[in-house]
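seq:
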Amino acid sequence: MKLNNKGFSLVELIICVTILALFSTMAVMGLGYMNLANSKKCVSKIDSGLMTLKSRNMADSKRTYMHLYRYTDNNYYIAFSQADNYTEASSFTPADDSGEMIANNKITISYNDTEIAAGDCIHIGINKKDGSFDEEPHHETTSTIKVTGSSTQTLKLVTATGKYFKE
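struct:
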């Protein structure tokens, strides 16, 4: 046996492999948390969009509608437009740069358990007189916007009161 052996021992090799396995496990878990953050960030953007919708309705003479849609690039967007009624607002057609991107194609958004498909658009309005959500698109007492990535985040819209909350 030589005293000045400059090779690796079996113990050193096992320690290096263990450290490498730990780092790769943490990297995989970190990627999972990033998808979780994406769905939470998307719900936060929809939440702030609803707050913007309420404040614009109080400030403007015409009704403001929020359009939550999936464009042909399979990304989700939010846009706002002004209209006199829901029928006029439902004729909104998204353009390339008309909205703010809120989620990419790795996330799915559904409205009342129906996924928003490419080219589909959900129109949400608020009545000026009492702050309730526009009745025409919301026949239920509560509507649900569900954002699914690696986790599921939910926004419940209470039609009669115009309130909404995260679950």
